[in-house]
Design brief:
The structure is a homodimer of 231-residue chains. The N terminus and C terminus of chain A are likely disordered. In chain A, helix 5 crosses helix 10. In chain A, 62% of the residues lie in helices and 0% in strands. Chain A is mostly helical. The first copy, chain A, is built from ten helices and no strands. At the A-B interface, helix 1, helix 6, helix 7, helix 8 and helix 9 of A face helix 1, helix 6, helix 7, helix 8 and helix 9 of B. The first copy, chain A, binds a DNA duplex (30 and 30 nucleotides) through helix 2 and helix 3.
DNA sequence: GGGGAACCGTACCGTACGGTACACTGCTTG
DNA sequence: CAAGCAGTGTACCGTACGGTACGGTTCCCC
């Protein structure tokens, strides 16, 4: 919002990407304290001087790691055509599964831990960056999907953001925070596909519009009995 | 589980509680880096030597802060009598509101940030401690409540833990992680009572059993149409 | 081929923090 | 009153890390 030309985010050379990759590996292995400039330079066969030339300071390096990693997890594009009913459900399940996979990833967890650990102090720059670079794209994908489903008459809700937050809650529950705290996932949580399907079932029970005899006229579907959405 | 006599967790003297209070304040204000042993000693008018005598080392001090804080947020006792329908819903709403209040608290956020930041490295002792001392009591309270509601025939589910996780997800959504990352709550999220009521409404739409004409015989209510709970 | 830019490896500096030692003080107890 | 205990304040030590400087090497471009 405060960026004039966001079309060209700071991209890095191949060499710098290699260094960022090494830094991410070190971060995953050793956490915050395992990520020292000397350690990165040694592991990546580069000099500390280059690190500071490329990334400014340690914080710039961490920020670069976040943007680099989120650039790798580009979300798939939204649906082009208004999805048919079963396809819409399938897209939701895929989204849920992708979300669980991303949030459970080693690198994602390590970066979130890093940003959260930094967030308490005076400057919470990394936290905002994770929110912007990491979560916003995912949210945007989900919102587009939800609104396409609403336009097609499969779901009904007043506030897209509210529906998204509920969807997120049903999918992720407390798994993310528990993983961040170092907990092991419970046996039932390892089957991400099944968890995703269950969550979407629940979401559609809350926000779904029952199929109609004349599926061709989904115009005024938003008045279904599914949503109260009290204010 | 590995503790022989957990009836007497390490309690601290009044003086030590004062010190822990000061340490929590420093942690809230300055985050991880703002919490140095010298800083605590100065702010609490005690000597570093006393800190190390009382708490062993820095990690012991952090652990003491966690147990001290969670001892202050003792959850209310479970329902004694099987709750009537409206009362059951009210208890759920109260639980939801309490949960949101606790998770949004300054101290809770700071301690979670601390534990999460530490969790990446070799020893994730603080993370486990937060899970055990902070979250388990809340979960126990909710589970007791849910099972009382099931026994009274108001809700139906096969796995209590699964129902609890869904309840948690509907209440908290992604608010906790966003707050941990330093995000500000959205306007609609500040009214915790309304959010709690909405979440419980949704939960009851998923797991609720419709009231019956003969409310006096809630015995075989678990066969209601509300739950599929696919495995 | 020569000049220069980028970069590696290492050595170095200042600082800040965890942890320890020690002298001094006030309060309790026999 | 004397002894002792608990605690305070300060000084101190070792280490580890962020950041800088510098010599040597490679490689590209003119």
């Amino acid at each position: 919002m405060d960026q004039v030309a966001p079309a060209a985010p700071p991209e890095f050379s191949a060499r710098q990407n290699d260094v960022l990759e090494v830094a991410l590996r070190l971060l995953v292995e050793g956490g915050d304290k395992g990520l020292t400039t000397a350690g990165i330079a040694r592991a990546a066969n580069c000099s500390k001087e280059s690190l500071y030339k490329w990334f400014g300071d340690r914080d710039g390096l961490l920020a670069a790691m976040i943007t680099y990693q989120s650039s790798k997890v580009r979300a798939a594009a939204g649906p082009g055509a208004p999805p048919e009913r079963a396809a819409f459900r399938a897209l939701l399940v895929t989204f849920a599964e992708d979300l669980l996979t991303v949030l459970s990833g080693d690198v994602s967890l390590a970066l979130n831990r890093l940003a959260i650990g930094e967030a308490g102090g005076a400057e919470a720059r990394l936290g905002g960056l994770v929110l912007k670079a990491g979560r916003r794209p995912i949210e945007a994908r989900a919102r587009a999907l939800l609104e396409a489903g609403r336009a097609a008459g499969h779901v009904a809700f007043a506030d897209t953001g509210d529906a998204y937050h509920t969807l997120y809650g049903l999918i992720v529950r407390d798994l993310h925070v528990r993983l961040l705290l170092g907990d092991r996932p419970e046996p039932g949580e390892t089957d991400r596909r099944a968890r995703a399907a269950t969550a979407i079932d629940q979401f559609l029970r809350l926000f779904g519009v029952p199929p109609r005899a004349d599926e061709t006229k989904p115009e005024r579907a938003a008045a279904g009995q599914a949503v109260t959405n009290r204010v």
